[in-house]
Amino acid sequence: MTSGVSRFGLNFFVTAVAALGCMTASAANAQETAAQFPSRDITIVVPFGAGGPPDSIARVIAAGLSKNLGRPVIVENRPGASSGLASRTVARSEPNGYTLLAVDISFAVAPHIASNLGVDTSKDFRPIGLSAKSVFTLIAAQSLGTPTVADFVKLAKAKGQEIQIAHTGIGTTPYLAAVTFIKATGIDPLLVPYKSIAEATNNVVAGHISATFSAASTAIGLGSGKANVLGVTGTKRLAGLPDVPTFEESGVKMTGFENGSWYGLMAPAGTPDAIVDKLNAALMATVQDKVVADKLMASGLELSGSTPEEFGSFTKAQNAYWGETLRAAGIKPEPQ
């Protein structure tokens, strides 16, 4: 009897020690993984199609992260469902730092327009940091004959919904710029959704649609003679568009969108602190690269970093602001 108990006690002790050893080894491996991160390619998922500002900025940031982390960083475009498709993909991925979400102002808007977003943006992600800001421009078809903001507003008031403004979906940056402009000027144009800002811009240039809002980099890339760039957000004119006045100069107050859009990176909730810190450090090194920053500044893009905590507080405040603004405008969450 005593011998049986002893054998049972010995077996239990051996099993417990083995289990403890496995737990210790697992913890050591987890720490080793965090210390060695990254050991393979990282993917940044962009909620929009190729060619627009979120995609372009994500690719600049990806190149910088790749340089600073020593591993390839790949950009994957997953447009759809008011950014829900991309958001769900990242939120449900392993929280190990290898799948990140490129976010912009629409990240703060999506919960207020999509009832089936499938994620809780306040709980399902960990902020990595702010990456950039960009001013926005109003681009109008030359066939309208409206070389200034005042001319465009006058024509829009006379023509009503014969004037169309292209955007990339309710809640996206071009949409928010358009509704801000409409509220500020009292016009009533027809808002027309497109799959990408590149497609929308091409249709403005071709004269198929009246106007669209896009990042200044898109307007600068058009070159002269293709469309009329009427105004730019921000407090000063751009070096790349020196003849284009700010909306403020044109007498239009773009409340809530004064400085255009912002961009940053999120990781899935549960991503370890050590990995978040390493990603943030690489992001900060990227945005502080003077060669890259100077190259982007002329086109209205400003690299701008933050700590994860600062970015978390910022996106929370943006969520509250746009939620209140959209509710006041009568916009309710609907299936996307």
Characteristic terms for this protein:
336 residues; single chain; disordered N terminus; five-stranded mixed beta sheet; alpha/beta; six-stranded mixed beta sheet
Layout: helices, strands, pairs:
Blueprint: H1 2-36, E1 42-46, H2 53-69, E2 73-77, H3 84-91, E3 99-104, H4 106-109, E4 125-134, E5 136-140, H5 149-159, E6 164-167, H6 173-185, E7 190-193, H7 197-205, E8 211-215, H8 216-222, E9 228-232, E10 261-268, H9 273-287, H10 290-297, E11 301-303, H11 308-328
Parallel strand pairs: 1-2, 1-3, 6-7, 6-8
Antiparallel strand pairs: 3-10, 4-10, 4-11, 5-8, 5-9
Structure overview:
The protein is an alpha/beta fold and 336 residues long. It contains eleven helices and eleven strands. It has helices spanning 2-36, 53-69, 84-91, 106-109, 149-159, 173-185, 197-205, 216-222, 273-287, 290-297, 308-328, and strands at residues 42-46, 73-77, 99-104, 125-134, 136-140, 164-167, 190-193, 211-215, 228-232, 261-268, 301-303. A six-stranded mixed beta sheet has the order 2-1-3-10-4-11, with helices on both faces. Helix 2 (53-69) links the parallel strand 1 and strand 2 (73-77). Helix 2 (53-69) packs across helix 9. The longest helix has 35 residues, at 2-36.
